[in-house]
Design a protein that fits this description.
This protein has 149 residues and is mainly β. It has two helices and ten strands.
């Protein structure tokens, strides 16, 4: 697991998405699409061991959204979550911990979990902007071509 201070360091590194990663359907989850990509630094050099994953559940109604934005770090052959923004309906339980349950949008910074009120269902672009800002990612992020509610 990545410690909070290391997660904050990785989040604070200026970066941009390398190339033009493509959205793909998730064969084991109908209606889900995901994108995986790498990062490059301000000079255009690939940032080793750091990657991006965005997943969307395209709901029939906005109130059932699920957007996941994740910054991963690869260490010793394993993928570790440094940061994740999960956007879901405010009435949906989205995280359980010994401290109690969280409902709706929240973020993980290393092992720390906090509720997020700045994003919500029906605003994928706003959630993508929030993620990009939190993780120091130059815009624009790859936006899916599918119709999102």
């Amino acid at each position: 697991m990545i410690a909070v201070d290391e997660a904050l360091r990785l989040m604070g590194m200026p970066k941009k998405v390398y190339g033009a990663p493509q959205w793909r359907s998730r064969i084991n989850h109908a209606g889900h699409v995901f994108l995986q990509g790498q990062f490059e630094d301000e000079d255009g050099a690939l940032i080793a061991g750091l990657s991006l994953q965005i997943e969307i559940k395209a709901p029939i109604i906005i109130q059932r959204c699920l957007y996941l934005f994740t910054l991963f770090s690869f260490r010793h052959g394993a993928k570790h979550r440094a940061y994740q923004l999960e956007v879901a309906p405010t009435n949906k339980r989205t995280h359980n911990s010994p401290e109690g349950a969280l409902f709706g949008p929240h973020e993980h910074v290393g092992p720390r979990v906090e509720k997020v009120d700045a994003v919500g269902c029906g605003d994928f672009n706003g959630a993508a902007e929030y993620f990009a800002q939190r993780c120091s990612i130059a815009r624009p992020l790859p936006i899916p071509t599918l119709e999102l509610p």
